[in-house]
Amino acid sequence: MTASAAVSLPMIENVPSGQEPTRGLGVLELLGPQGRMELPLASVSIAAKVSSFVAEVTVTQTFKNPHREHLEAEYVFPLAGGCAVGHFELRVAGRVVVGKVEERGEAQRQYQQAIAEGKRAALLEQERTNVFTVKVGNLPPGEEATVMLRYSERLAFFEDGAGELRLPLVVAPRYMAGEAVDGPSGSSTHSDTTKVPDASRLSPPLLAPGFDPQTGLQLEVELLHEKGVTSFDNLACSQHATKTVFRPDSITVSLARAERFDRDFVLRWRMGGAGITSTLQVYPTPEGEHFALLSILPPRRDGFLGLPRNVVFVVDRSGSMGGAKMTSAARACALLLRTLGPRDRFAVQAFDDRCEWLGGAPKFVAADEAGLEQGEAFLRQINARGGTELDLAMRKAIGVFAQDEKHEGLPIIVLLTDGQVGDESSVLKGIQTSLGEARVFTVGIDTAVNDGFLQRLAGLGGGTATFVEPGTQLEEALRAVGREIGAPLVTNLSIHDENSGADLASLAPAHFPDLFEGRAASVFLRVRSIGKLTVTGLGSDGKRFSQTVTAQPLALPALAQLWARTRVADLEDRFRLASAGMPVSPGGTPDSLKAEIVALACKHTLLTRFTAFVAIDQEVVNQGGEGRKVVQPVQLPAQWEEQDLSAGIALGAPMFRMAAPGAMAAAASPVSPGLASPGRAVLERIATFITGSGRAKEGRDAQLPRPEPGPSKAELAPVQEALGQLWAALAALDAELKAGRVPEPRALAEARTALLTALTGFIRASQLGAVQTFLRTGVAELLAALQAKAPIAGVQALLVRHAVALANARRQADTLVEGKSAPEAWERSI
Amino acid sequence: MKAAPTLWSLHELSEEAAGLLRRTGLAAVQPDGRVSAAPDARTVRYYTTLGLLDRPAIEGRIAHYGKKHLLQLVAIKALQAKGLGLAEIQERLYGRGEAELQTLADQLVARAAQIEPPTPLVRRMVEVALAPGMKLVVEDGWEPSDPGPLKQQVLAALAAIVRARKGPGERS
Q: Which pLDDT score is estimated for A607?
């Protein structure tokens, strides 16, 4: 093996045999108690305050450096999906440095520079709506540093006063679709993939079973009594033991004992008293602006049954769903089946990296007794396995409506999953572009669910998101969603200004969500004064819906940030489409949308996918910036282990039993008893689950290819010249059209041929996909029109139609030819 | 996290680690074969998930491993051979730099070289009763080289035993 000959291993050859290495500085004592590596995260403290269904949460993380050299600690952690992070600070050496929001690339540069200059610094970035990365660098030996962030979140609420607060504590392993590619993007355990370009930022190392990092956790939630609210009833924390303190104006709930970071803290309650009504809350800023939150409750359903429904249930049976989660998902689906009426039809699809259908084919079954029993039998036999190819599953579910011969009934998709995927962007894009008339409802099932993604998915799909914890009372939790699945009570909602000076263009989300039974729908907007607004819409019974709401002023600065955050979510949806070269309403290019997001975030001090918080302490403590880097490993979510028990492997079972299905490796290679705990088998399955098809080619057959050489100047020259020719021809064409002349097709035709010829011999032609597509569609159509002597208006219309494709082609070409930086990994995963 | 230079495919890395462990005696003498010398792809991926192994560099969609990966893998296997569980191994190896891993490998190799060949557990002894309460025990196959000084040594040892028995009594 030539490779082994090339590497020298002086450590083996140079050690004189029999000589004990000197103990002392620089010698590792790995077998004694000093050999243990202390992890950087010392403690986390979370304090939440809830009033008017807005939560304001402060998260404080303390890092320590037990090492002899300076430390850069990195921690990938979750926050509630869709929250607005509006404050970040670094506390070191008795000082507080307040972080500032910068464009993300710029923030990274400033942080790196500070580290190189030997200054203590912290960087907070957002990877997903609910996944964040914090880095604290140049922490001197023996020192502690604390970072503190604050966020606000709009909580969903219901007519009956039910409220829910989720404080996630761990980022669960996610299935990473696509093939592994190398990228500089992150320091986690998974390689970036073709479908998840930032997978390496989403996969923190897992703690081995039995390794308790003893990170301190404090958590406290304060529920403030509102006007008209007399009590909080049914206060329930589904996954944690808590203690509750009742005060005249509030209730405080805190953890009853030390806890691990392995599941969401979920608190639910029901407010008693005067009842919940539609509201318009307005925050007047000191600068004289007004940010409003309008919450509308629907009327009661008055006996109108609605139209018959065609429901496709999509049940996640991937490896991460094992154990109690799989049982809960199947039971939840069975319960929802029972809410269907005899006029409805349904189909059930169970998916992992394959899709299986009830009855063997993607077809609707009547929701009569026989059909329901058939559905229940199908659900009972589903077990967990494989990867989570959610994009494929959703596309197939949407496809059922198109194949259906009976063209009646409301098309509905109900997705039951933990949402643990990395390629959320593809799934969301699929919903945005091909959902058609169908609505998507999501039911999230996990101890540490991907709430942000499932909320967005339901939001884009015109439905609602509901979350249940495995093993809990499903009937109660699913009561609301059972009612909602189907037609909303009121659609086509719009706002009419009475005397508020409402800026209707500022509406966020831009489209008022439809009203579902019992559930309030909210929008943020800007107004000029404290006045009234009227909301009108179309009832499902055909009647007109109208409600007028009077504003109440509220000293809640979070409303400004929540407005901005909701608007950013809309802009991200448009950015996702624009980046894929698809038409966006109401317009915008990736660059313009990005600029809009950055401007909004900077104005409102908001963390987004395009911005980051950076905090730099000015003292120089580490000349040169060298030191140790440690990523905080995280727990496997609770009950992810139980899948293993359900597979027939008891805790501490002897080795030979590990040949049970799902416990791989044991049969292939004997392992030491220390590794034989069920945790290892589970973790191995998790490793396989998140890797999925995304793993790099490995094993016996993998040959090491020579590294692909970059394009040399000589190789690049003909392509560059032809590209220049094409852009010039298009510019000339545009100028001719603007001058009112019909241009000659010759220059464009020549440029096209020249470029196609140049590309055939070009080593990196595959990196110019958008250019090639544009040549074969846009340019070809333009040429055809010119040769056919089409009218000027027609040619101009063609140019407009292909403007986005042209912009994408140009950007791609510039990236390659001018060596301009490619879009950042995070931009490709929006 | 990127290790440079990248040298081996996963299979090659595994073979390399196994060879090294065998040559240095770090994991070879396991009577029950508990430590698998050549970890398979799944096990390596699992170690990566735990952060015990850096993720590989990907070139042309193929995973490449380098010297740091080899050091990490050798360290895991060597500590396993010492009977440590994965949690304990993670507590000791997690976040270690290449220089530390090198030092660790040096130490482990040095210690492995120090260990004497194991002495057999079963030895045959021959026993002769010389007087009531006194026995002579000799290893089977023992032969006296020079009986003269030995006789003196035996008498001196007997005298020492008698003295030791009397000692405490006299002092009290």
A: 98
Single out the residue of B3, B20, B57, B68 nearest to residue A705, CA to CA: B57
B56 touches chain A (CB under 8 A): yes
Closest CA–CA distance from residue A197 to any residue of chain B (Å):
13
Contact A319, A387 (CB under 8 A): yes
Contacts 24+ apart (CB under 8 A), B75-79: B75/B101, B75/B104, B75/B105, B75/B108, B76/B47, B76/B52, B77/B17, B77/B21, B77/B26, B77/B27, B77/B35, B77/B37, B77/B39, B78/B21, B78/B26, B78/B27, B78/B105, B78/B108, B79/A30
Residues of B in contact with A182 (CB under 8 A): 2, 57-59
Nearest to A118, CA basis, from A140, A92, A141, A94: A140
Query: Chain B 78-117, CB below 8 Å of chain A: which residues?
Result: 79-80, 82-97, 100, 102-107, 109-111, 113-114
Q: In chain A, pLDDT over 90 holds for what percent of residues? A: 54
DSSP A554: -
Q: Is the pLDDT of residue A805 over 60?
A: yes
Answer whether B11 sits within 8 Å of A698, measured CB to CB. Answer: yes
More confident residue, B105 or A113: A113
CA angle A253, A55, A77 (to 5 degrees): 85
pLDDT tens-digit map of A494-515: 999 999 999 999 999 999 999 9
The answer on pLDDT for A698 being more than 70 is no
| Stretch A151-164: mean pLDDT | 89
- Residues of A in Cβ contact (< 8 Å) with B45: 684, 687-688, 691, 695
First to last CA, chain A: 44
Q: CB-based burial of residue A226 (10 Å sphere; 0-12 exposed, 13-18 middle, 19+ buried)?
A: middle
DSSP per position, A218-259? EEEEEEEP-TTEEEEEEEEESSS-EEEEE-SSEEEEEESS--
A99-110: pLDDT as tens digits: 999 999 999 999
Contact B86 A680 (CB under 8 A): yes
Give me the interface pTM, i.e. the ipTM: 0.74
Range scoring the smallest mean pLDDT among A265-279, A475-489, A705-719, B94-108: A705-719
> Are the beta carbons of A688 and B49 closer than 8 angstroms?
no
Contacts of B49 in chain A (CB under 8 A): 173, 189, 203, 205-206, 683, 686-687, 690
A29-53 average pLDDT score: 83
Residues of A in contact with B98 (CB under 8 A): none
CA distance A30 to chain B (A): 6
Q: Which of B10, B20, B60 sits opposite A699 (nearest CB)?
A: B10
Check the CA dihedral B131-B137-B142-B145 and report its sign.
Answer: negative
**Residue B74 pLDDT greater than 80, yes or no:** yes
Candidates B46, B54, B71: best to mutate against A (most CBs of A within 10 A) is B46
**How many angstroms separate the CA of residue A581 from the nearest CA in chain B?**
26
Range with the largest mean pLDDT of A12-26, A58-72, A727-741: A58-72
CA torsion sign for B41, B47, B49, B54 is negative
Which of B35, B87, B102 has its CB closest to that of A210? B87
Exposed/middle/buried for residue A165 (C-beta within 10 Å: 0-12, 13-18, 19+) = buried
Mean pLDDT of A255-272: 92
Residue A645: its pLDDT value, please? 32
Of the partner residues A670, A705, A708, the one whose CB lies closest to the CB of residue B33: A670
The residue type at A186: G
> E strand or H helix at A445, and its extent?
strand A439-445
Min Cα–Cα distance to chain A from B139, Å: 30
Mutate which: A1, A2, A13, A15, vs B, most B CBs within 10 A:
A15
